[in-house]
Amino acid sequence: KSLKVGATKNMCFIRFSLIVIKGDAVFVSQPEAHTLLHRQRRYNSGKFEEMLKDNLERECIEETCNMEEAREVFENDEKTVDGDQCQPPPCQNGGICEDGISTYVCWCKPDFSGKNCEIEVTKQCSVNNGGCSHFCAVEGEYPVCHCAAGYRLKNQHCEKCTREQQGSMSKHVSGCLQVALMYHSASLGRAQTFCGGSLLSELWVITAAHCLADPHINTDEGPERDHTVAEQHIHHMYDPKLPYNHDIALLKLTSPVELSNERRPICLGPKDFTETIMRESTGSVVSGWGNIRFLGYQATKLQKLQVPYVERPQCKQSSKDHITRFMFCAGYRDEMKDSCQGDSGGPHATSYDGTWFLTGIVSWGEECAVSGKYGIYTRVSRYYPWISVITIN
């Protein structure tokens, strides 16, 4: 059959022939099929191949690769022979080596990882804090232990520096010390405690920003010494109209506190470390000279209470007020144990391997020890860079 196509000026005829093949006539022999599907190799390979420059793709990919073909390209025995990458054995800690082309793979035992199975998984920072007594940081592929100021690293353990070792760093001697913020009451004729705080060094106290409404503040470290405040540093994002978000402030004293074994600052840790010990601890401690109960009498002696951490979903559900990511809950749902009025600014402290770290600041709550409610604390881990900048400068 034929098909005719016409044009306006020139007549052009295109003829297509349809051939009908019956039965098995549609198949052709293998030699004929090979001839039909044959394609010319690249790189002008063929009978003049030996006249061309050696090429690895022509010698070892388009042709059957063997030692002779590869040697033609490299013209060097060392470059031609890949060798056994598993000799000498590169895998450590019982890993099994699998040889490859110019590389190898180590199949590690369950407790190890890394290219050569050199990393012990159980000693990573994410597992038991890398075995460190204070801070763990991954440097390269390995966990490295660091200590808080006033401590030194010895045999992978942080130990307190002696007075001679401290030298000019003695202001960072670690420990936990509660201070009271006081103002002079004209009606009572004496100083009155209104908030708490924690000593960070010889010259610095950390407290809650909402405690600093009165500019005439003294810091009392107990019956022994009083110190006046030289500088107040309220967090730049604190808003008195929203008095509990970013509820954190620093006070610089006019004169240094005389440190001793009984009078020592609390430690600060980096964000991840502080978050971890805060969440995992079941016995963090809050303290203060606040009221014994809601609208009750003020304590005459420093009160201390262990409080468990409360998971964030449960924390948010417990209050009609907004609990931001800069806050956290701690306490008991149905027990008469809680921080109270007057405890604001005091420490939420967590002990790790014998050292006390500041993990929170007493901030606010709905009355005290109300069933279904918790104490709300400033999340100190969020402010580590800010604290460092202020206290260093």
Automatic annotation (TrEMBL):
<keyword id="KW-0597">Phosphoprotein</keyword>
<keyword id="KW-0333">Golgi apparatus</keyword>
<dbReference type="InterPro" id="IPR000152">
    <property type="entry name" value="EGF-type_Asp/Asn_hydroxyl_site"/>
</dbReference>
<dbReference type="InterPro" id="IPR009003">
    <property type="entry name" value="Peptidase_S1_PA"/>
</dbReference>
<dbReference type="InterPro" id="IPR001254">
    <property type="entry name" value="Trypsin_dom"/>
</dbReference>
<feature type="active site" description="Charge relay system">
    <location>
        <position position="344"/>
    </location>
</feature>
<dbReference type="GO" id="GO:0004252">
    <property type="term" value="F:serine-type endopeptidase activity"/>
</dbReference>
<dbReference type="InterPro" id="IPR001314">
    <property type="entry name" value="Peptidase_S1A"/>
</dbReference>
<protein>
    <recommendedName>
        <fullName>Coagulation factor IX</fullName>
        <ecNumber>3.4.21.22</ecNumber>
        <ecNumber>3.4.21.69</ecNumber>
    </recommendedName>
</protein>
<dbReference type="InterPro" id="IPR000742">
    <property type="entry name" value="EGF"/>
</dbReference>
<dbReference type="InterPro" id="IPR017857">
    <property type="entry name" value="Coagulation_fac-like_Gla_dom"/>
</dbReference>
<dbReference type="InterPro" id="IPR018097">
    <property type="entry name" value="EGF_Ca-bd_CS"/>
</dbReference>
<dbReference type="InterPro" id="IPR001881">
    <property type="entry name" value="EGF-like_Ca-bd_dom"/>
</dbReference>
<dbReference type="Pfam" id="PF00089">
    <property type="entry name" value="Trypsin"/>
</dbReference>
<keyword id="KW-0256">Endoplasmic reticulum</keyword>
<comment type="function">
    <text>Protein C is a vitamin K-dependent serine protease that regulates blood coagulation by inactivating factors Va and VIIIa in the presence of calcium ions and phospholipids. Exerts a protective effect on the endothelial cell barrier function.</text>
</comment>
<keyword id="KW-0479">Metal-binding</keyword>
<keyword id="KW-1015">Disulfide bond</keyword>
<dbReference type="Pfam" id="PF00008">
    <property type="entry name" value="EGF"/>
</dbReference>
<keyword id="KW-0301">Gamma-carboxyglutamic acid</keyword>
<dbReference type="InterPro" id="IPR012224">
    <property type="entry name" value="Pept_S1A_FX"/>
</dbReference>
<keyword id="KW-0378">Hydrolase</keyword>
<feature type="domain" description="Peptidase S1">
    <location>
        <begin position="178"/>
        <end position="392"/>
    </location>
</feature>
<feature type="domain" description="EGF-like">
    <location>
        <begin position="82"/>
        <end position="118"/>
    </location>
</feature>
<dbReference type="InterPro" id="IPR018114">
    <property type="entry name" value="TRYPSIN_HIS"/>
</dbReference>
<dbReference type="InterPro" id="IPR043504">
    <property type="entry name" value="Peptidase_S1_PA_chymotrypsin"/>
</dbReference>
<keyword id="KW-0645">Protease</keyword>
<dbReference type="GO" id="GO:0007596">
    <property type="term" value="P:blood coagulation"/>
</dbReference>
<dbReference type="GO" id="GO:0005509">
    <property type="term" value="F:calcium ion binding"/>
</dbReference>
<keyword id="KW-0964">Secreted</keyword>
<dbReference type="InterPro" id="IPR050442">
    <property type="entry name" value="Peptidase_S1_coag_factors"/>
</dbReference>
<feature type="active site" description="Charge relay system">
    <location>
        <position position="210"/>
    </location>
</feature>
<dbReference type="InterPro" id="IPR000294">
    <property type="entry name" value="GLA_domain"/>
</dbReference>
<keyword id="KW-0106">Calcium</keyword>
<keyword id="KW-0379">Hydroxylation</keyword>
<feature type="disulfide bond">
    <location>
        <begin position="108"/>
        <end position="117"/>
    </location>
</feature>
<keyword id="KW-0325">Glycoprotein</keyword>
<comment type="function">
    <text>Factor IX is a vitamin K-dependent plasma protein that participates in the intrinsic pathway of blood coagulation by converting factor X to its active form in the presence of Ca(2+) ions, phospholipids, and factor VIIIa.</text>
</comment>
<dbReference type="InterPro" id="IPR035972">
    <property type="entry name" value="GLA-like_dom_SF"/>
</dbReference>
<keyword id="KW-0865">Zymogen</keyword>
<feature type="active site" description="Charge relay system">
    <location>
        <position position="247"/>
    </location>
</feature>
<dbReference type="GO" id="GO:0005794">
    <property type="term" value="C:Golgi apparatus"/>
</dbReference>
